[in-house]
Amino acid sequence: MAASSVCDPLPTPRPIETTSREPPAATLRSVFRRAAIASILILPPSRLGTEILVRLKWGQHEYKGNLVSLDSYMNIQLNNAEEYINGKHNGTLGQVVIRCNNILWVTKFEGTEMTDMTGEEEKQE
């Protein structure tokens, strides 16, 4: 077996891909900015004083009340708030503040009947 004094050359590296699959940070910032603006547009200042319904992410909790204020994070303050659990009235709370990260959705309350959103239908005997 003959020993060679010259090493075999290394294989040529593949060119590095210059296009990134992730959007640049500036694009992400604009997406978040548009989302924040959209959340503000959902509840414009003209909605202040109107009756709204807020559904929470956790459990089957809904709160109905008059919109007193909201901020850019979507924290909501309600007056004359009523709590509904599984579509059933659980009591009147008065003044409440609901933190933004707990909110699933917000809608204008139009006198519709609260529904049980558990997906289970009650058996009538």
From TrEMBL:
Task: For the region Disordered, give the residue spans.
Answer: 1-23
- Intracellular or extracellular location(s): Nucleus
Q: Name one GO cellular component term.
A: U1 snRNP
Q: Which SUPFAM superfamilies match?
A: Sm-like ribonucleoproteins (SSF50182)
Keyword annotations from UniProtKB, A to Z: mRNA processing, mRNA splicing, Nucleus, Ribonucleoprotein, RNA-binding, Spliceosome
The terms under GO molecular function for this entry are: RNA binding
Q: Start and end of every Sm domain?
A: 39-112
What's any GO biological process attached to this entry? Answer: mRNA splicing, via spliceosome
Name the family. Belongs to the snRNP Sm proteins family. SmF/LSm6 subfamily.
| Quaternary structure (record) | Component of the heptameric LSM1-LSM7 complex, which consists of LSM1, LSM2, LSM3, LSM4, LSM5, LSM6 and LSM7. Component of the heptameric LSM2-LSM8 complex, which consists of LSM2, LSM3, LSM4, LSM5, LSM6, LSM7 and LSM8. The LSm subunits form a seven-membered ring structure with a doughnut shape.
Protein name listed in UniProt: Sm protein F
Species annotation: Penicillium argentinense
Give the lineage: Eukaryota, Fungi, Dikarya, Ascomycota, Pezizomycotina
